[in-house]
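Risk register update: the risk that structure generation would not scale has been downgraded. Supporting records follow, first protein first.
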Amino acid sequence: MTALGAGRRVVVTGTGVVTPIGHNVPDFWAACRRGQSGVGALGGFPLDDLKILIAAQVKDFDHKARLKHYKRDKIILHADRYSWFAAAAAHEAMQQAAITSFADPYRTACIVGSGAGGLVTVEQAYRDLFIHNKRATHPLTLLRIIGSSAAAHIGIEYGVKGPTFATCSACSTAAHAIGIGRDYIRHGIVDVAIVGASESVINYGTMKAWQAMHVLSPEGCFPFAKRRNGTVLAEGAGVLVLEAEDHARARGARMLGELCGFGMTSDSKDMVNPDIDGPSEAMRLALEDARLAPTAIDYLNAHGTATTINDRNETNAIKRVFGRHAFDLSVSSTKSMHGHPLGAGGGIEAVACLKAMEENWMPPTIGLDEADPECDLDYVPNVGRERRVAYTMSNSFAFGGLNAVLIFGPPPA
């Protein structure tokens, strides 16, 4: 499904990230330009009998320093780690957008999702109760766990009184939040939306759960490579500030790009085995929504998880939608650098798309020494590349066959 009918144009005026390769947008993008990997040895909690000992963790994150600007919402300092990431990314995005308050807070939305919510808190609570034999959990445990806590914290801090909630659609969470925020603005429900997602799930219990599914690599994240053998869990957040074009112009805001297309579908097939039809239709709907021919897209940020089936199916879906242009299209998976941050991926990758447009430079797929013969597109192997980038597409495909695709273009003239 996709939004139908004409409406207001929606632009991006702010971006913010927290990632394993940079705790803000400038550092994240500099790391992308270096082709830096954020994958390393797992640490920070008991490893016990874990077999997968790597992840892309956000290291040395000083939440007190990053959240010192939060004045209204003091509880954020005592929140779950996923809420810290979201709040820090939102603050960076709001600073870039140069918004300190809203003329009409009821016409502002805050849609910041999470695929898992406060899993760090869940594990700590269970350890306290069942290992350390404590009689009670921390009094803020419930508030820390809730998947909408991050959205609520950000909404409280900035006085958002319009629609405020979280999306939850596994690895498509951020893309759905961004697309829904776009539609709210497009159809006149709100004028501004803080949108994205955050994730912090790297702990013993989560690693054991993912390990049991046999989809994690013990070696690294190598999307589209012949040697790929699984994905690498990551954490972080990606947040955008969206505005109606007329609202942004009225306050003299700098527009970073236009969010011109959004498509979403469900495979309705299987919880873990991806399809080709659903992703293809989501891409097609996003192009239709943006009123663009496939040949207009210059760069595609792939879902690219480095699992055998996902990468092959995504390649075939791209071929189905783009036809001969698929082989002229530049495709890369930035997950090769920042890992797979689950629900936050679409937010981080949306920022990569906007930066690619700004600098006419495409981030690489690192670790691509030999491509899988069935993955035969231009994946910008190992080293980034200059190219004129007018329109970008970002794919997010999730467990359960939940697909969301975003298209960004240049700011309206």
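Supporting record for the second protein:
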Amino acid sequence: MRTNTPKYDEEFKRSIVSLYQNGKTQSELSREYGISVSSICKWIKRFSGVKIDSDTIITAKQIKELQKRNAILEEENIILKKAIAIFTPHSSRD
């Protein structure tokens, strides 16, 4: 049976991650806000940015969205290749 776990909005989660990035420990945040350490850890992984180059930072959420979009495009590409093979007349050299 499911317990009543509180739902936190994205803005709150981001503020907790920001506090962590500014020096608070996960255990301090857990005690202060009554959030499990495992939840805080998940939020840090989700909302912390990865620096790509000097002016580009990307989050784990954005990476997942890009991976999903890439999979869709790869599938479309396979379908188009099959369609070309079906509709392109094959010339025979005799």
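The chain has four helices and two strands. On this basis the risk owner (M.S.) recommends closing the item.
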